[in-house]
Design a protein that fits this description.
By secondary structure, the chain is mostly helical. The chain is built from 15 helices and 2 strands.
Amino acid sequence: MLSLHDLLHRQVPRVPVTKLLVATNLLIFVAMLASGAGLWHSSNGVQLAWGANFGPATQDGEWWRLGTAMFLHFGLVHLTLNLWALWDAGQLVERMYGHARFTALYFASGLAGNLLSLVAHKGLAISGGASGAIFGLYGALLVFLWRERGRLHPHEFRWFFWGATAFAIVSLGLGLAITGIDNAAHIGGFVTGLLGGIVFANPRMNEKPSHVFSSRLSAISILALAVFMLIVRIPPPAYKWSEEVLARKEIGNFLRDDRAITQAWQHILDEARRGGISFDELAGQIDTAVGNPYEESFEQLSELPPDPALPSAATVEILRDYAERRRDASRALAEGLRTHNPAQIRHALEMARQPLQLPKLSPPTPSALPR
């Protein structure tokens, strides 16, 4: 009697989808390393840039993150564990269900797991990893083994079935016990794999077509209802990621422009000390090179979305006040030069010397959840 592995290998000799998934995850990890990710840990900013699942971004029209998050990993250990589990289970499940159904199981489980993660964590965590989809493979594996238990050697059935069951239970238990693991994605993927295994199972010998149809319809109905309930329970996002990206871009532009304006201001003052330029000409240069640019920066910062929930909202407000202060100082200086008012000139220069003190721009969320 052929072993289960030999029988499956004879029916489906190659597992191209499993190999492609392993290679894709590995190549994306290498590409992330080349773009600045850490070997042992990646920052939230890198994960977000590569498509991690995060409420304010995913719910801001970037729903594709539910899929891209399946191919992101937060470090070498995270990647190694997931690829080992994918290779181990993927070879069996792809041969059990065939290439197309295996692909559908994998992506359906990963997407459902990411959707449950979004709801369970209220969109406030950055998550990524392949294990939601991998847990779906283990769910489908258990369904296949249970349905085919009568055709398998008892010892082999116990080895595979209870081994896979123990793996799932221990992994889910560790996810509950250890903080920082996205167990919601594991549970969502596993349940989807169980239901998907029923939907895609091959009919057994002498099994009535009506029974097959009833089982598949029930599984599809439960899965559809679960997805619908998750969709209606998606919490409103804390803020819009597109607005945060816009604010951060404007902050970067302002800091770059501020350095250039400061250099121009210093050049004008140095030129004034050397003499050879009238007070009126000096005032005109200050208006053109300093006052007007700060006025433009103030207006641009004021036009940003006024959402206090944005992580960079405090920084934008500080910069707006700073631009306003520098604008007023440059105008006061220009006016003092035109009216030959030494006291006003000294006061304006004192205003201009007040330094810019910015809080460090931190990642938009305190937690990152690998899975």
